[in-house]
Amino acid sequence: MKIVCRDHIDLSVSVERAFTFATDIARWPMWFGCMVNAHLPESEALELGAVLRLCMVDGRQRRQETFEVTRYVRNAFLSLEGELSAARRFDLRFEQRGSASRISIIEGYPVFGGMIPALYDALFRRPRARRTLHESLVHLRGLLEDNVESKYHADDFLIDEAARSAAHSHQLHAGKRSPQIA
């Protein structure tokens, strides 16, 4: 049995910018809630037929799977299908709506074993998957609309000492002023 979770979100950025940001695989763990790590072999570009290795989290369990790009249309579609199970897939659809855009994500996953696993999925797993998908889209919207451009890894980021000390001294001077009582 194949289970499908879908959600969409409207953005105030162009579809080109949304597509470029959302298809940058290195950024997936930054906004995609179920992704821990996404890896594309260095010799390949993200295109039709490319193979990705994704490390995903499901509750307390992590699993690593290989996905193939089965549909790639620039600024429109990106579909990933699991190599071991065609039921596991991610479909990202990008639409231009005037000056805004919409991103839709569909996540499909298999449920095996009959009635009991299907009931467990309906009660626990599917609501968590839908919530994670919605939170991922909200986080993506926040990153895109706040114009966040991560150029450095968190460990490599150097803080400008002059800017930091100027902000710190400004806070100290603001705290020393006391309201005058007349």
Could you tell me how far the N terminus lies from the C terminus, measured between alpha carbons in angstroms? 75 Å
Topology order in helix (H) and strand (E) letters: EHHEEEEEEHH
Number of beta-strand segments = 7
Helix-and-strand structural type: alpha+beta
Q: Please tell me what the overall shape is.
A: globular
The rounded Rg comes to 21 Å
Low-confidence stretches: 152-162
Q: Could you estimate the helical fraction of the residues in percent?
A: 25-40%
**If you average the pLDDT, what whole number results?**
82
Main pleated sheet: 7 strands, antiparallel
What is this structure's SSE topology?
Layout: E1 2-11, H1 15-22, H2 28-31, E2 35-39, E3 51-58, E4 61-73, E5 77-82, E6 89-97, E7 100-110, H3 115-145, H4 161-176
Antiparallel strand pairs: 1-7, 2-3, 3-4, 4-5, 5-6, 6-7
Keywords:
182 residues, alpha+beta, seven-stranded antiparallel sheet, 4 helices, 34% strand, globular
Walk me through the structure.
With 182 residues, the chain is an alpha+beta fold. The chain contains four helices and seven strands; from the N terminus they run E-H-H-E-E-E-E-E-E-H-H. The protein has helices at 15-22, 28-31, 115-145, 161-176, and strands at 2-11, 35-39, 51-58, 61-73, 77-82, 89-97, 100-110. It is globular, with a radius of gyration of 21 Å.
